[in-house]
Amino acid sequence: MLSEYWLSEKLRRKCKEFANNIVSLQPKRLKNYLDMMKYFLAITLLATVWSTSASDTFWLGADISGTSGLEAFGAQLYNAQGEPRENTVLMREYGLNAARFRVWVNPKGGFSSKEDVLKLALRAKEQGMAIMIDFHYSDWWADPGKQNIPKAWEQMSYEEMCQALHSILVKRLTC
């Protein structure tokens, strides 16, 4: 408990120091996109730091969406002592208290599908971990630099795509 408190206090001090340095830029003096992003990051950090207290949970998590794929191909995970472990058990053993999972529209092999994510989320829940779901409106990787339209949506009109997006979101949220 003391180490968690120390870590969160140290993190708060570092965030405040960073944010105070960046905030001194002031919006009217922002010269480029990078300065603007630093300014908004600083404001976000300040809001986060000021809104938390030492008793708040410090979340430590990882994206372990690839677990089913690893298992399907026969991969085995081990702890530092060389003992085999299931991924959520291993992550909890190493102190993680949150797991993130990506859910795709129609993924190849079914990995990161709604059913796969539900199965993995239940495993993480059994370990007492918080669950974070990241909706990817793609059949594969999606990030700010790469947003591939799901194959089934490629020939849809804009209106049809909006309806498909709504439909899949509702289905994902009401499993």
Walk me through the structure.
It is a single chain. The protein has 175 residues and is an alpha/beta fold. The chain contains 6 helices and 7 strands, in the order H-H-E-H-E-E-H-E-H-E-E-E-H. The chain has helices spanning 2-23, 33-51, 67-72, 87-93, 114-126, 158-173, and strands at residues 61-63, 77-78, 84-85, 98-103, 130-135, 142-143, 146-147. The strands form 3 sheets. It has a 3-stranded parallel β-sheet with strand order 1-4-5, covered by helices on one side. A two-stranded antiparallel ribbon has the order 2-3. The longest helix has 22 residues, at 2-23. The protein is globular.
Summarize the structure.
The chain has 175 residues and is of the alpha/beta class. Helix content is 47%, strand content 13%. The chain has 6 helices and 7 strands; from the N terminus they run ααβαββαβαβββα.
Give me the secondary-structure topology.
Elements: H1 2-23, H2 33-51, E1 61-63, H3 67-72, E2 77-78, E3 84-85, H4 87-93, E4 98-103, H5 114-126, E5 130-135, E6 142-143, E7 146-147, H6 158-173
Parallel strand pairs: 1-4, 4-5
Antiparallel strand pairs: 2-3, 6-7
Helix pairs in contact: 1-2
Give the strand order, joined by hyphens, for the main sheet.
1-4-5
What is Rg? 20 Å
Give the H and E element order.
HHEHEEHEHEEEH
Shape: globular
Task: State the distance separating the first and last CA atoms.
Answer: 36 Å
Low-confidence stretches: 1-7, 21-30
Beta-strand percent range = 5-15%
List descriptors.
175 residues; alpha/beta; three-stranded parallel beta sheet; two-stranded antiparallel ribbon; 6 helices; 47% helix; disordered N terminus
